[in-house]
């Protein structure tokens, strides 16, 4: 599997197929970083490269909210305030998702773990699975002002999930998806006020998780203030390199 920029930026279906068939399993990959660094966007690029699933705890929680499940009812208010959903609930949700057979060759955890409690739970779970590869963690870095623009400008297509930004990557027709023509929506937690709370939660609870994985070794930092394909290429190269550590 090549780690060149081209395979990361625009993998053809043949390249994706090759990656999916490769004996070299990517294993569990953690994408870490503050709100708005592009974890979700990059996870989708990596899915194309490796053919392993993206597991976004934010997306799973929003699906629970939309379906009105008991978890969704608890999570809705907490998410609306920009705070973190309790570890026990999120861990259980992730445990259930990891039972799916599509995770056998690896998976991309996007937005998890976000606390040291979640990291301890995940590390313990992986240590108990002798066949599991060790985790590789990649932290994406973007400065605060850039994050604020990314978050407050973000709009999503409710049909195909394409992400736009009214400042940096606007749709051709203001307010509507280029692909589906659907009216774009803004996440209720993508306001400046809630962003500030999410950043506070990140600094207090998630920054120590980054340090935890940095200390464990299989860890890389990438500059997230570049074009999407360049960042993806950097992540692929880092994961390939870290996977070959002894
Ligand atoms: P995200 O889509 O990753 O920005 O997550 C949106 C919101 O979902 C966060 O602000 C939290 O309220 C909640 N959330 C997502 N992932 C987690 C997690 N691992 N632990 C606790 N809360 C989470």
TrEMBL record:
Which pathway does this chain act in?
Purine metabolism; AMP biosynthesis via salvage pathway; AMP from ADP: step 1/1
* Residue ranges, annotated region (LID): 153-190
Q: Tell me what organism the protein belongs to.
A: Candidatus Sulfuritelmatomonas gaucii
* Entry protein name: Adenylate kinase
Entry's free-text remark on domains: Consists of three domains, a large central CORE domain and two small peripheral domains, NMPbind and LID, which undergo movements during catalysis. The LID domain closes over the site of phosphoryl transfer upon ATP binding. Assembling and dissambling the active center during each catalytic cycle provides an effective means to prevent ATP hydrolysis.
Chief subcellular location: cytoplasm
**Record Gene3D superfamilies:** P-loop containing nucleotide triphosphate hydrolases (3.40.50.300)
Q: Which family does it belong to?
A: Belongs to the adenylate kinase family.
- Enzyme Commission numbers on file: 2.7.4.3
Stored Pfam families = ADK, ADK_lid
Where does the UniProt annotation locate this protein?
Answer: Cytoplasm
Q: Where is this region: NMP?
A: 56-85
Instruction: Give a short account of what the protein does.
Output: Catalyzes the reversible transfer of the terminal phosphate group between ATP and AMP. Plays an important role in cellular energy homeostasis and in adenine nucleotide metabolism.
What are the GO MF terms of this UniProt record?
AMP kinase activity; ATP binding
Q: Does the keyword Kinase apply?
A: yes
Q: Which residues bind AMP?
A: 57, 62, 83-85, 111-114, 118, 187, 198
What this protein catalyses is:
AMP + ATP = 2 ADP
Keyword Kinase annotated: yes
Q: Which gene encodes it?
A: adk
Identify the keywords attached in UniProt to this record, alphabetized.
Answer: ATP-binding, Cytoplasm, Kinase, Nucleotide biosynthesis, Nucleotide-binding, Transferase
